[in-house]
Amino acid sequence: MDENGIRDLETRLAKAMQASDVDALDTLLADDLTFVDATGKVWSKADDLNGHRYGVQRIEQLDVQEQSIRVYEKCAITVSKVALRGTFGGAPFAGSLRYTRTWCETASGWRIVAAQCSLVPF
C-alpha cells in the first residue's frame, strides 16, 4: 500500500462517517479496534458502529483541512485536522478535531486498528 492508497481509504472513511454507512465502516474498521475520543472514552468497533446505526452520532459536515500520511510495510499512520459539525446524543456540536489513525494490513485487507482524536482550539 502506498500513500495514495491510504488517502483513498481515509476518503472512504470520511464519506462513510458522514453517511453513517455502517456496512462501509464495518469493512474499514478492524474487529479489535480501539478508538479513544476527545473526552478520553474508549470505544470498540461495536460501539462505533452502533453510534451510527442508532443515530447516537450524526455528522453533518466533515472537512479534512490537513492530513499527513506515513506508510510502512504493513501499517500506516495518518494525522488529520478535521472541521466537524453534527449531533451527539441529540446535542449539537461543532469544532476542529485532530485524528491519529493506525491502519494495518490484516488478513481481510487494510483496516483501522487504533485511533484517537483531540480537540483543536480555534
TrEMBL record:
Residues 6-112 form the DUF4440 domain. Pfam families: DUF4440 (PF14534). It comes from the Bacteria. This is Cytochrome P450.
